[in-house]
Amino acid sequence: MDMVLVAGLWLAASEWDAVADALRRRGHRPVAVELPGTGPDAAAAASLEDQVAAVVAAVDAADAPLVVGHSAAAALAWAAADARPGAVRRTVLVGGFPVPDGATYADFFPVVDGAMPFPGWGPFEGADSADLDDAARDALAARTAPVPERVARGVVRLRDERRYGVPVTVVCPEFSPDDARAWVAAGDVPELAAARDVSYVDLDSGHWPMLTRPAELAAVLDDAARA
């Protein structure tokens, strides 16, 4: 099956390389999307609309794909399902959740010179980064690119309620499926509350399983493809 892979904030498409290799061995066709604004010289230029358009273009070039969004990019995967509800076979949300229409995409940290840089490991201490040693943290931080302000502070626009019919798999790395279900039941994730086919999968990792558990994440995606 075709799989469109979308990395979260600050990350390049190459962070999916190990997962993509494992997926190919399982017979799938992974395509990691290089989001506009992730290059070192383009940070201030891109917008949220540009990033959504890049994911939708990857969907259009694929054959009924799974669309996998990591962390904040769960909202990009969901936006692609909204834009192409008849083409996306399933969305897989890894450590993240959809953002409702009219909400800000990812205005989480200070913006500096038109972009939101990686804030360091302080905000991610604990379960998020417990499976990354110091060397892995340093290497990942060095690879990050600031998120354009017009991406981080962009407003999500969703238009087609047929997105609620696209099946969803929520992959739960640093939190549990019970946690995720409780957040949905409490009204914290209204898009998933309205979705008609949502499943939850536990994955024993921190927030970046494509780096620390690539084989296990590929197995989860393979299962989702066969669901």
UniProtKB/TrEMBL annotation:
Cited PANTHER family: AB HYDROLASE-1 DOMAIN-CONTAINING PROTEIN-RELATED, ESTERASE_LIPASE_THIOESTERASE DOMAIN-CONTAINING PROTEIN
Top-level taxon in the UniProt lineage: Bacteria
Keyword set includes Cytoplasm: no
Organism: Cellulomonas shaoxiangyii
GO MF terms held by the record: hydrolase activity
Record carries keyword Methyltransferase: no
Keywords of this entry: Hydrolase
Protein name: Alpha/beta hydrolase
Gene3D superfamilies noted in UniProt: alpha/beta hydrolase
Domain (AB hydrolase-1) ranges: 4-220
